[in-house]
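Shipment paperwork, digital attachment
Item: protein structure file
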Amino acid sequence: MPLALAAPQLLIVFLFFFWPAWKAIWWSFHLVRPFGNGSVFVGAENYLRILGDESFYSSLQATVIFTAGSVLLAIFIALLLAGCVQLNLRGRKIFRHFFIWPYAVAGAALGVMLKFFINPVLGPMAVVNSLWPGLWDPHLNGSEAMLALIFAFAWTQVPFNFVVFVAALQTVPDDYLAAAAIDGAGPVRRFFDIQLPLIAPFVFFAAVINVIEAFTHSFGLVDTLTQGGPGGATNILVYKIFSDGFVGLDLSGSSALSVIMMLCIVVLTALQFHFFSDRMGYER
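Attachment content:
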């Protein structure tokens, strides 16, 4: 009976996770014809071709910049908001609900809205160009396009981090905060000296989740906001996999690139646990 009840979920996981992952690994070692009719085993040739391509390293650099910027910004804003709602301010319960709502907005929908917002001619940002002509043009300036993408993706991750940090702050004993207040420590000093060290494991958890989300679930936002441009400045790995596989019809190369991205996520997560496990109180 337990297996019968779990069978539908197991079937979904197999069809939409394990089977595509296995096919990606299989295709990465073969030269696959884009319209079927067989494949040829080529070994590690697809990986060598990707590692020798300069566009791969450009995409990897863009991915690192995008991930680091969006994760740090999302954690900083979420910590700031969570610390503010912990204060005895009027209406803090209402603000808790408002800060969670953006998590329901899909990345593709957000990209469509922000594409108009950052438009240097018609959007609200056109005011900047009216004051200083040519100052804002993300269609031509790769740094500005990356900056807009970082802010947009960080906005999608703030609600999740906010929920985690609010729950974590509620676990801090009130006796510690009361003792610090008696000693004359203000809200900011209590946050950095008491609350932040105690919730450090939760911050670490949110950072790992945000990094994985930046690597895997940023496609919709990039596709609708920048399409990897201008000049490949925002062509992060997840979007390069799509463009190489479905636009360039290089199924073998895109499969090898997806395997490399999966290995990057595994290595990055392992390094985070290795360097931060002792500080965060985790046991190896």
